[in-house]
Design brief:
β37 (747-754) and β38 (757-764) form a beta hairpin. α8 runs antiparallel to α9 and α11 (483-492) packs antiparallel against α12 (515-521). Helices cover 12% and strands 46% of the residues. Belongs to the TonB-dependent receptor family. Residues 63-114 form the Secretin/TonB short N-terminal domain.
Length: 1099
Amino acid sequence: MRKCNMRWFSPQRMKKHLAFALAVSLVAMVPVSAFAQVLKISMTKTNVSIENVLRELEKQSDYTFFYNDNQVKLNKKVSINVSDAPIETVLNEVFKNSGYTYKIVDNQIVVSTAAAAAKEVQATQQQKQRNISGVVKDAMGEAIIGASVIEKGNPTNGTITDINGKFSLNVGGNELQITYIGYMPETVSLKTGVASYNIIMKEDTKTLDEVVVVGYGVQKKANLTGSVASISADALESRSVASVSAALAGQIPGVTSIQTSGAPGSQTGSITIRGKNSINAASPLVIVDGVPGTMDTIDPSDIETLTVLKDAASSAIYGVQAANGVIVITTKQGKKGEKTHINYSGIVSWASPVVKRQYVNAYEHAILYNEAVHNENPNAVLPFTDEDIENYRNGTYPSTNWYDEAFKKSAFEQMHNLSISGGSEKTTYNASIGYTNQGGLTDEISYKRYNARMSLNSDINKYVSVGVNASGYRGIKEDGWMGYVTVAQGVSRSYPTDPVYAEDGSFNYSGKDNPVAIQDQSGFTRSTAQQLNATAYAQINILPELSVKGVFSLRHDYTNQEGFKKHFTYGNFDSGLREGYDEYYNHNRYTSQVLANYNKTFGKHSIAVLGGFESFEHIYKFTKASRKGGGNNELTESLNTLDASSQKNEDGGYEMSRLSYFGRVQYDFMNKYLFEANLRADASSRFPKDNRWGVFPAISAGWRISEETFIKDNVSWISNLKLRLGWGKTGNEELDPDDIYPAIPTYAYEKYMFGNSLYSTAYESRYVNNNLQWATVTNYELGLEAGFLNNMFGFELSVYKKKTNDMLLYMPIQGVIGMGAPAQNAGSVENTGFDLNLLHNNRINKDWSYAVNLNIAYVKNEIIDMNGTEGANSKNDKLWYIEGNPIGSYYGYVANGYFNTDDELANYPKRTGKEQLGDIKYLDLNGDGKITADGDRQIIGKNFPSWTTGLNLTLYYKDFDFSAMFQGAFDVDGYYMAEAAYAFYNGANALKRHLDRWTPEHHNASYPRITKDSQTNFTTSSFWLQNASYVRLKTISLGYNLPNSFLSKLGVQKAKLYVAGENLLTFSDLEGIDPEEGNERGWSYGNVKKVSIGLKVSF
């Protein structure tokens, strides 16, 4: 039996493959005409016919001769003697004094009589003088104003229709191209002797003939049998988002994008497709131009289409990587026959916090603080006298707003992209550069990104095509040493009664970190990330129906993280020793593919077959170094200035690989009955050799009911009706990031003191599981798609159920073993739900049109089996995993009001025995008369929404366009604690909402009695759980397309000015917290709202 070597692609061999692929791609850059220049002919002929010479030339070259037998007679005798001569020299000699001439077109040579050639020139000259006029109307007979009328093949010669839809244009070609927003492009063939035309344009429904990107190829949307959704570049336009994931929110049903931060360089979304599939949930697979890539390093302006494969029927072709769905991105490419276009897009924005923390002022703080001290000790001396409180009230004593002192009101951002594209009939090209600069709400935080991308594709001949795609980016993120989180923490813990500066002008120190001082003096951190992607391919068209394509791709990721902590003092504060660190992380990923495609239509049958092979290798290395002590505050870029005796060094890495075989068969009969089958086999080096391979099949079928005669002939208002059914399996290999070799013993290194000596030790760090295998996700789906009244109305509905079996969990083991728990196949999770997309578009008249798109998605997530490992999340003890409940469920006591009377305090069950009037009561769920952790806690909420929605509105009026998108999430809870919820917790200030607290006179309060040090009320309970459902105006824009009559004078093809906003309105019950914020203590940067101005220009 032949064995499979998982590392048959060594780095050295990879480099050889890459060198070959790039060399092949360079060949594509040479224009076809260049081959004519280098072709040399050697020939000696005496007294032979011209025809004989031409046949010899065909043998020595790729040229073919064409001529009319009735006009061209090639029996004339000629003699020729040439050596290494260009083909033009040979032809000139052959046709000298013959009465014939020739014309070279690509690899064809047309021979004609001199008279016929002269008539062609004369006809061309006459044709150039033709004036063509006409009128352009819609199907209702209304004139279309401003339609673009261009001579096909000569995009610089054009005009637009006037107020009556009329045009007049001098042309030299034989065709006109008419385009207008909302209508299908029309090509008009010009007839000899006809100078006036009536042109009817059809509305662009953009439905059944649309081609969408799928796994390893494209497919007609009408023939899809899986759940596939796409958004085009238009959906990303006029957006001031630097990351693609942030732009996905609300766009596609079933795709949940949660943006937890608006910090520069971190404005990304956490994407989940149709619920969480496992406890070790991971992001969807991202495919960029055919190979695995990353989404948020791409400049959004470079994207042509983005497609989401949501079910197993569409994603199983990616096997083990597809358990969490697949996002397929294609970048912009040049188009054949397109003249060079230069495009610029730029946008400037002003960003400010969506939610601003509302802390109490000095007067309110003094009252609450006194009350908190008194509630804990009625005999204590109160820190603020009545005179102090009055002076704070009337402004005699100042009040410091630490939030305003530490943070700017807004931050400036800008994004620019410049691209060039075009193509001949054989070669296309596209290149772009991008620049992003994001300022932060503090002076220390910022992000800059530089993007570059190019593509070149060429048909060498009718059999061979080659191409290359290359891209790269460099991102630099900077912050203070203590970072934004520390500043936000300092703001939450600073009292408004304390000033920012002391009387001598230095920073004030009142026993707490001064957030203004620490960001000004603490030092810096810097993260520099770079990525280089290069992909080369060659395709051979063996038959018209059969092609084979080879692809090689490399992706190099490099990150340098460095920082320097300065030594500084203010008041009695001392920052401690200087520190520095320098870390390097290198990832090299290699992907090789061989793809064979066969497509054939015979009669009423169509079949498409794909077969492929893919190998993937990932090599990771890192190096870390740090020092502490010594140095000075001026030399901050080198560790060598710090104390060498304190240095710590660390390095490591890993290698992993996958090998895959896959195939797909698509069949349709009469474009009505559709069938598709996919199969993929994956092997991963992460699993034991006996369990290394996993096989993932999928089958699906569709019935285009609207193509049946009983619908076509009898129900004219049904434009489209299709039923889909699918089943499939995908795999999951997601383990902890540091658990690369779960089936191989791995070792850790530590240092221990024995006696007075320090010894280095090595020990096996994790238990080995040789029975580990793939987790599998099984998906069932039923879908219905419909369009009515020429697709003016429509909907797409998908109902699904997917279940993860053999979930990868880390089962607890006895601590005496002294090793970490191994991964095991021990659990299952189920998601059931539906996606619904409602569509409506309408053109009211020649000036007005609009479109409405409402998407709604529901998912019920449930843990079916935990195999005895139910319990708290190791990283967040408020989130528990319990069978019968969703992943990420909050677990705690059930609040039942306050202790309002002495009788309640004496007789009601208590949790700690230290409760006082105004403290929180909890339900005694097991009825034993006590409040205990074992008997009285239950699931009280969940952190992932069951319902998500998006509403997209678009309106067109003449050259204006308006769009707005609302995004919402429902049936989701947020648990906020510590400084985000508790007054005076851990030295924090109080929030405005704490003013509504329990007092003996006010029982119906939203907050319990105020305390300073007591934490009786701060245990995990439903009291602190909040409804985190929300609706947000995610984006809004108003654009104006400058008229062509004005732009043509400037040499500009088109230009658009627009204003836009992001996150401008949020409707939520939460107070002082953004519903998407990821930090339960309120220290994260939080989302930002933006106001933007943009410009797009094409030349």
